[in-house]
Amino acid sequence: MVVGKKHFSSVLKHAYEKAVTAANIKAGFRKAGIYPLSREPVDMTQIVKLMPTAAAVPTSFTAADAPTFFTAVPISSTAAAAPSSCCQGVSSSTTAMASSSSVVPTCSTSPTCSVCPTCNRSTKNDLVETGLIPQYLADILVTPTFGQRAEGIRCRVPLQARVITSEDYVAHLDNLEAKEKEKEEQKKKRKEEQQKNREAKRARQAKAARGPCNG
How many CB atoms lie under 10 A from the CB of residue 73? Predict the structure, then answer.
């Protein structure tokens, strides 16, 4: 069955009145867990949870002043990764505070090494680091590149303020209208001249064609 344009609006109105009802809207809110509030519709295995990791703490900092850094890991690996991450963070912080040597950031922590200077592409994949995708998809789902536009920004030149009711502006409009009329007249004259030239040319050709026959 094909519904034409003439009957489409009436069919849509009939379907809309049956689908969009108060009961269906309430059922949708209840199914999504919006109202009444419920966490059951949310798939907890797809949520990324933040876990504390080791932070580079200078020797002058104390344990209370040391900042806390977080990295995102999938919720499925939280149970196995949580004890080792916590222990690793405590041991790394203790070692960093006890050591007298300064901490030198590597390329992964340095902000200047996160973007390639030649191609302006990120050297790390944020989706892999947050645990959203596995490592073998890093070359497919790459971090988008935000390059600079080669074309400069065009600025609009502001026009001079004019009073449209002034005599000068009215005279300016009259002048423009006169020029347009003059252009139209010249264009009309050129067309008339071209038409006359074409007619004269056809007359000469016809006369030349009749000449040998008459002779």
Answer: 20
